[in-house]
From TrEMBL:
InterPro entries: At5g42320_M14_CPD, Peptidase_M14
Residues of the signal peptide: 1-31
Recorded superkingdom: Eukaryota
One GO CC term, this protein: extracellular space
Keywords per UniProt: Carboxypeptidase, Hydrolase, Protease, Signal
Name of the molecule in the record: Carboxypeptidase A6 isoform X1
Domain Peptidase M14: 48-334
SMART domains xrefs: Zn_pept
Gene source species: Carex littledalei
Swiss-Prot/TrEMBL cofactor(s): Zn(2+)
Stored Pfam families: Peptidase_M14 (PF00246)
Length: 431
């Protein structure tokens, strides 16, 4: 349905069209909480991929082998009986201390259940960081020098419940265990829907941070206060920066620095084949309520990115496993090697840029972290997010009111001109 159709109807049956218009407008404003099920069930089994259990088990064993470098925690949250837990691995080389403040990096993988390759990159990146495998392109001493400047928190599987659904056979599902897209459940421009909105793909939940996974990630972010954030996805090859909800990049030095870091990665490691720029400007659609927009706008993370690490556009629409994950060993290994290497370059260049550009490294306070922080309460929210939501709702209702008023005025004018035309016709006929 578009505006022209509505305006044509308004001449014939204004009351029906008002109703239809209001319904249409309100449906673009309000979130739907009833996900549709149009998924195709494509069972998969591939020797290249770990199950969620075996992947997390391998990570725990790896951490146990390097107690001087790694620690691991599980953060838990719940909402109305729905439970979620997120494993967080921290790299911080405690034996080698440097005199300057360390750059804090937060990486998240597996926010969408069907993107299995991202969690394999997480596992391999940890192997590389631990020094158990050699990173292509870099010698081990250079890697150690780069890592000395960093504290890195890795979330290897943000959406464990959603991943379990995929492992149970629904390889097209990207949402969490309650049917919510975790990359639409954050507060920046939450709930707005585009014309091509697909509730199966993009259900934003009943409110910003309605989902425990998003609550946990928000709490992790506020405690850790990172300088660099990367959300790792698959479905295409791209290096994205804010914004997702509009077709622009941040103004000024911050946007310029982020873009130059991404262009450098694209040139060095991907033969310029990745799309680079704002998510909203490059991907072909706007996304509202995303994690990366929140990280940049609200959490004030100076470098906030979304990496899309693999996609097969030629795969059948029903074959999500092939669409989002490499299926042959050579491609699988290339994706792992290229992206793990790109992360090391990001750490190196990002550290340099953050220091050189004075991008809030010193004025971001250090983080606190203790055991009490590992559980997130039900319906956790803070006043700032509540205020943002209220302003956004107000803006949406004002937009609705304004459009309705314009339509009523058009109908009113149209009726007056029609009456005048009828009067004129009567007069002419009568004369
Ligand atoms: Zn994704």
């Amino acid at each position: 349905m578009n505006w022209l159709v509505i305006l044509c109807w308004s001449r014939r049956n204004p009351f029906v069209s008002i109703f239809l218009l209001l319904y249409y407008l309100s449906s673009t404003v309000h979130a739907s909480s009833s996900p549709l099920s149009n998924s195709s069930i494509v069972p998969f089994s591939s020797p290249l991929y770990h199950s969620s259990d075996s992947l997390l088990r391998e990570i725990k064993t790896l951490v146990g082998r390097h107690p001087d470098k790694f620690s691991i925690e599980t953060m838990r949250g719940s909402n109305k009986g729905y439970l979620a837990e997120i494993v967080v691995v921290t790299y911080n080389h405690t034996k080698r201390q440097i005199n300057k403040p360390k750059i804090r990096v937060l990486l998240s993988f597996g926010q969408h259940g069907r993107e299995l390759i991202t969690t394999e990159v997480a596992l391999n990146l940890l192997h590389f960081i631990a020094g158990e495998r050699r990173i292509p392109y870099y010698d081990s001493q250079s890697v150690e020098n780069i890592l000395d400047n960093l504290i890195i928190k890795v979330v290897p599987m943000e959406n464990l419940n959603g991943r379990k659904l995929v492992e149970a056979g629904d390889s097209c599902d990207r949402r969490n265990g309650q049917g919510v897209d975790l990359n639409r459940n954050w507060s920046v421009d939450w709930g707005k829907k585009e014309k091509d909105y697909d509730p199966y793909e993009e259900n934003p939940g009943s409110a910003p941070f309605s989902e425990p996974e998003a609550q946990i990630m928000r709490k992790l972010t506020s405690l850790f206060n990172p300088h660099i954030w990367v959300s790792v996805h698959s479905g295409m090859e791209a290096l994205f920066m804010p914004y997702d909800h509009k077709n622009t990049i941040p103004a000024g030095l911050a946007g310029h620095v982020m873009k130059s870091v991404l262009e450098d990665l694209n040139r060095r490691h991907f033969q310029k084949k990745c799309l680079v720029g704002s998510g909203g400007g490059s991907v072909g659609y706007l996304a509202h309520g995303t994690t990366t927009d929140y990280m940049y706008d609200i959490a004030k993370v100076p470098m906030a990115f979304t990496f899309e690490i693999y996609g097969d556009a030629s795969a059948s629409q029903n074959d999500c496993f092939t669409m989002f994950n490499p299926i042959d060993k050579a491609t699988f290994q290339t994706v792992i090697d290229d992206w793990c290497t790109a992360f090391i370059t990001l750490f190196k260049e990002g550290t340099k840029m953050l220091g050189g550009a004075q991008l809030s490294v010193s004025d971001k306070t250090t983080f606190t972290w203790d055991h009490e922080d590992l559980h997130v309460e039900d319906n956790n929210s803070n006043n700032r997010d509540g205020l943002e939501l209220a302003v956004q709702e107000l803006r949406n209702y004002f937009r609705l009111f304004f459009l309705s008023t314009v339509l009523l005025m058009i109908m009113f004018c149209s009726r007056i001109s029609k009456n005048k035309f009828n009067d004129l016709t009567l007069t002419l006929n009568g004369s």
